[in-house]
Each structure stands twice: as C-alpha cells, then as structure tokens.
Specification:
Elements: H1 6-11, E1 22-25, E2 31-38, E3 43-51, H2 54-70, E4 75-84, H3 88-104, E5 109-113, H4 119-131, E6 136-140, H5 143-159
Helix pairs in contact: 2-3, 3-4
Length: 162
C-alpha cells in the first residue's frame, strides 16, 4: 500500500471539478475548507471552518490556486468567519510562499472576512501587513462588504485595465 502525500490528493481531483465546490476533510472526518469558482461574480470563494493546522492551511491555500489559475481569476474572497483560534503559525508561509505564486498566476485582489473579536482576525491582520506591496488585500467583518469591495474593484479594472 502506498501513502499519498496531502499535495498529491489535490492533484487527483479533475481540474474541471473546481467549478463545483471542492472540500478538504481533516483527520476527524470534518470539512475544514471549501473552495469554488463563482462564475457569476468572477472570484474564487474559500470558506475555512474550525481549527486550522499548519498542514491543513498549506493544503487549502494550494487547493485554491487551481480554480484561480484555471479561471484566470484575479479576485479571491477568503472567509474566516467560522475559524476557531489563531493561525499565526502559517502567516509567514502564506506571505512568502503562497502569495508570490498566487500573484504570479494573476491574483490581484484579496478580500479577507473575519469575525472582528476572533483570534483569527489577529492572524489576518498579520497577513495583511505581510502582503503589503504584493497585492491589494482588505479585511472585512462581514461578507456583504467584502463582496461590495470586490465588485467595486472589478468595475474599476474593467473601466481602466491598465
């Protein structure tokens, strides 16, 4: 019996599957991450759920690169409202490893939704500081405002694509 690495599990999913929600399951059999391309709004939507481990965040972050690339998508709506606890243990990796790859394939705008009183909000603030100069990221405490911001930047980009 051969063991598959977590990254190889992502590659087993057909690329067209990213048009539908894609779920990642933790060691307890619970969904901890979903990602999908929202064709109506032209963005990728990530939903993170529960406590996030270092490995789980790496696998989830890498999983969302597939629909971003496949759909030539410049916009990401990253929802952390259901995250429990901080994820400071991964911020450096996200900023120094994931973000440059995401930007290289076209990501320009990142809307991060957090519960303002959560420890996850503190981790998101650290990530925001690290992203400075790489891409436009804004923090939101509700998803409606995050969606409005993404739509607004899309309109501006359509009007002036330079």
């Amino acid at each position: 019996m051969s063991l598959l690495s977590p990254t190889s599990l992502i590659s087993l999913v057909p690329r067209s599957a990213y048009l539908m929600p894609h779920q990642l399951i933790n060691g307890f059999g619970k969904v901890y991450f979903t990602t999908e391309y929202d064709a109506t709004n032209n963005w990728v939507y990530n939903n993170w759920i529960g406590y996030q481990t270092y490995t789980g965040i790496i696998i989830g972050a890498d999983a969302c690169l597939h629909p971003l690339q496949e759909n030539k998508c410049a916009y990401l709506l990253n929802d952390n409202r259901q995250v429990i606890g901080p994820w400071d243990h991964t911020v450096e990796w996200v900023v120094s490893n994931w973000a440059p790859r995401a930007v290289a394939q076209g990501l320009t705008h990142f809307a991060q939704v957090v519960s303002p009183e959560s420890l996850a909000a503190q981790s998101a603030q650290s990530m925001l500081l690290g992203f400075e100069g790489q891409l436009a990221m804004h923090l939101f405490d509700n998803i409606a405002e995050a969606r409005m911001w993404l739509r607004a930047v899309q309109r501006v980009t359509e009007e002036d694509p330079t």
